[in-house]
């Protein structure tokens, strides 16, 4: 008898058909009513879940008696109660590596657009304000040759560092839990404390996972340690930054600007950030290219198939559950 897979997001019809070769597949459809209700109704029969963007812990999964694996179409897994899943012996998988370069592209685009005021001046131009040569009040900041600070030099952080050093001749500083000798040798990157990085970097790029240790890693005190001419770039998770403190810092000129792809509350429909010309705000699109999302979904399918067919998945978040 085939096992049942419940796909709740980021799975296209062709991908669902691929899963149907081995499993019964349920895909909630808005045409059939409330998506959440369909999910809850199907959950007790599900051996595997696949998707992203849904909080899953004891409250949501206590009725999922048959559940064996949650395959997340994402790198981050802060939406999932890993301890609870592990306690129940439920495997959790994610999709590292496949989105590294796309997310690094997005991170560097935020550096460029913040420094050169791309979004602000695009809106200014479209509003019909370009009637003469731009004045110094519209000047941006150079990127080439400036100091790039990477907070969390994992795969994505290293990829951004390469773009900065090799493409824009930017000296690279990085901070984190451990040194990266290969990155130092390749790019001449310097391993420094967070305090030193904040004080010296012209662009502070946050690429750390969300945890109890990194929540509000950047708050009012840290923002004051940055140069007044510096930019904060966040492509990690929203709660890594104290958003209220950031708004105040942008309003008061404590830092020059910010490029943001993530926020403390998502989706974000209203925010003081939206009225600030020195904040570039994107809707959490780090991995949102057609090519990368397809690669992520296929990687998640591979992980799900392996787990449900008795093979060890490639990307286990909680390997202790696999016997």
From TrEMBL:
<dbReference type="Pfam" id="PF00389">
    <property type="entry name" value="2-Hacid_dh"/>
</dbReference>
<dbReference type="InterPro" id="IPR006139">
    <property type="entry name" value="D-isomer_2_OHA_DH_cat_dom"/>
</dbReference>
<dbReference type="InterPro" id="IPR050223">
    <property type="entry name" value="D-isomer_2-hydroxyacid_DH"/>
</dbReference>
<protein>
    <submittedName>
        <fullName>D-glycerate dehydrogenase</fullName>
        <ecNumber>1.1.1.-</ecNumber>
    </submittedName>
</protein>
<dbReference type="GO" id="GO:0016491">
    <property type="term" value="F:oxidoreductase activity"/>
</dbReference>
<feature type="domain" description="D-isomer specific 2-hydroxyacid dehydrogenase catalytic">
    <location>
        <begin position="5"/>
        <end position="318"/>
    </location>
</feature>
<keyword id="KW-0520">NAD</keyword>
<dbReference type="InterPro" id="IPR006140">
    <property type="entry name" value="D-isomer_DH_NAD-bd"/>
</dbReference>
<feature type="domain" description="D-isomer specific 2-hydroxyacid dehydrogenase NAD-binding">
    <location>
        <begin position="108"/>
        <end position="286"/>
    </location>
</feature>
<dbReference type="Pfam" id="PF02826">
    <property type="entry name" value="2-Hacid_dh_C"/>
</dbReference>
<dbReference type="InterPro" id="IPR029753">
    <property type="entry name" value="D-isomer_DH_CS"/>
</dbReference>
<keyword id="KW-0560">Oxidoreductase</keyword>
<dbReference type="InterPro" id="IPR036291">
    <property type="entry name" value="NAD(P)-bd_dom_sf"/>
</dbReference>
<comment type="similarity">
    <text>Belongs to the D-isomer specific 2-hydroxyacid dehydrogenase family.</text>
</comment>
């Amino acid at each position: 008898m085939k096992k049942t897979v419940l796909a709740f997001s980021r799975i296209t019809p062709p991908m669902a058909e691929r899963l149907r070769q081995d499993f019964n597949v349920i895909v909630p459809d808005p045409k059939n009513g409330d998506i959440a209700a369909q999910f809850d109704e199907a959950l007790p029969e599900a051996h595997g879940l696949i998707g992203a963007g849904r909080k899953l812990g004891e409250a949501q999964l206590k009725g999922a008696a048959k559940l064996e694996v949650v395959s997340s179409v994402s790198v981050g897994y802060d939406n999932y109660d890993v301890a609870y899943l592990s306690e129940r012996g439920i495997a959790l998988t994610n999709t590292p590596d496949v989105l590294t370069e796309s997310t690094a592209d997005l991170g560097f685009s935020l550096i460029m657009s913040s420094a050169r005021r791309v979004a602000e001046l695009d809106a200014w131009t479209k509003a019909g304000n370009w009637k003469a040569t731009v004045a110094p009040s519209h000047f941006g900041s150079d990127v080439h040759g400036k100091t790039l600070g990477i907070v969390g030099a994992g795969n994505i952080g290293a990829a951004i560092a390469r773009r900065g050093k090799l493409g824009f001749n930017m000296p690279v500083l990085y901070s984190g839990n451990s040194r990266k000798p290969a990155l130092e040798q390749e790019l001449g990157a310097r391993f420094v404390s967070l305090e030193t990085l904040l004080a010296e970097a012209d662009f502070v790029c946050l690429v750390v996972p969300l945890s109890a240790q990194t929540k509000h890693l950047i708050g009012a005190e840290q923002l004051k340690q940055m140069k007044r001419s510096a930019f904060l770039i966040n492509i990690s998770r929203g709660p890594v930054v104290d958003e209220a403190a950031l708004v105040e810092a942008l309003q008061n000129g404590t830092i020059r600007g910010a490029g943001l792809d993530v926020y403390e509350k998502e989706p974000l429909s209203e925010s003081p950030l939206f009225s600030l010309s020195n904040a570039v705000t994107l809707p959490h699109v780090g991995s949102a290219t057609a090519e990368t999302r397809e690669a992520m979904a296929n990687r998640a399918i591979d992980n799900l198939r392996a787990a449900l067919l008795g093979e060890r998945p490639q990307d286990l978040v909680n390997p202790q559950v696999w016997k």
